[in-house]
Amino acid sequence: MRRSLKKILPQRHHIEQHRLLRVFGDRLMDPRLWAVHRRAVAGAFGTGLAICFIPLPVHTLTAGVTALTWRLNVPTIIGTIFLINNPLTMVPIYYLAYRVGALALRRPPQQFHFQLSWHWLHYGLGPLWEPFLLGCLICSALAGLAGWLGLNVLWRWQVTRRYRTRHLAAP
Question: 104-129: string of b/e by CB count within 10 Å (b at 16+)?
Fold first, then answer.
């Protein structure tokens, strides 16, 4: 897994030369943000999954600030967000969050027809916002925890399997 990730990650000199990223200076060049080890990658994956359920279009900004603050792997957290939360998956993700929130509040899910208008946002969203936001919070916590735990288990299993294979093959 580590070798595969290293092939995909951008090289350090490409990042240093990118004009939009120069504003971060040396902080962005911290080796911990680009290290491919279990803690940084699993934490970034779980955090990226959790950020995907934020119902505002600030995913990339939130991911970048979180990665810089918690020293998580930047490509993993950004890649997770772009892979999971994109225009094709956004509606199913947020509908799932709404259904989970309605279930948690013990409310029957309501039928609604989205219209891009101020009137719909003001009156049509009224009965939906509580289950939607609660569902986003619940799904965020569960997806983040499951992603972090799942990748940790998968990473450890792969390392253990390689270790055993290497030692069983040795004379």
Answer: eeeeeeeeeeeeeeeeeeeeeeeebe
Q: What is the DSSP string of 41-73?
A: HHHHHHHHHHHTT-SSS-HHHHHHHHHHHHT--
Residue-wise pLDDT for 31-67, tens only, equals 778 788 888 899 999 999 999 999 888 898 899 889 8
The distance from CA 161 to its chain's CA centroid, rounded to whole angstroms, is: 27
Instruction: Give the tens place of pLDDT for each residue, 93-120.
Output: 988 999 999 999 998 887 766 666 777 6
Structure tokens at 86: 């994109």
- Residue 165's contacts (CB-CB under 8 Å, 6 or more residues apart) are none
